[in-house]
Amino acid sequence: MRVAYYPWNLRKLVNWLNTERPGYESPIIFAESLGVPLERLQLWTINQLPAISLEDLNALSKYRQCSLNQVVEWLEITPSHLSSLLQES
After folding, report:
1. How many Cα atoms sit within 13 Å of 12 on the Cβ side?
2. Structural contact between residues 8 and 77, judged by C-beta atoms closer than 8 angstroms
3. What residue spans of the chain are helical by DSSP H?
4. Is residue 82 within 8 Å of residue 8, measured between CB atoms?
5. What pTM did the predictor assign?
6. pLDDT tens digits, residue range 44-78?
């Protein structure tokens, strides 16, 4: 899977993940609950790598029980970034 790099609000995601994480016994269980690979979760929280995929956005949408559009707005994903992600899927 190729992941495009565009500016988006990774800091907002990391802050939210750090708030949510204490409710889980382990990072593995947290990643499973989010519906994202543990490696991706670690890239976001440990390495602060700004890679995100459409699958990640959909998983966050499902976890947060909100629409994909709301997640896109929350993370400040630009229209060109979203368009690129849609083309890749």
Report:
1. 11
2. yes
3. 10-20, 27-34, 38-45, 54-64, 68-74, 79-88
4. no
5. 0.88
6. 998 777 889 999 999 999 999 999 999 999 999 99
